[in-house]
Design a protein that fits this description.
By secondary structure, this protein is mainly α. It has two domains: 77 residues, no CATH class; 40 residues. Helix 1 packs antiparallel against helix 2 and helix 1 packs antiparallel against helix 3. The relative contact order is 0.11. About 4% of the residues have low confidence.
Length: 142
Amino acid sequence: MRHPQVIAEYARTYHEERKRLSAKANAKRAHLELRLGELNREIDRLVDAIAKGHGNPAVLGPRSSVLNEERKQVTMEMNLEPAGNDTISLHPAVLARYQEQLVELQDARYQCRRFRRGGGDQRPCRDRNSLARPLAPGGRHD
């Protein structure tokens, strides 16, 4: 609270890191989905070739078994990956407003300390509880 810029920088850094991790996870999931589609198509072609009598079933059968095992592995990996990581972020104006409010709070605390030491305007100290009260509709304290 003593350094609003530090808090704002923390929020920015946190958001950037979440975005980076989310993009990485989404890329891995997209790669797995693409590979799963390729495997399904290749297995379908092999089954169709065997059904139509094209190629030797003794050769195509084991190949389809190998592809099926890889498909199971890819499916298992996909189930372990979280689906669609969309990063939820604060609007930049919210972070800026939060930083402004922290600066205002620091100023009010400073003014109150000055008053208690014998100088300055006493309004910030008299109204210090209004900083903690929620605002009424219209943005005013009751």
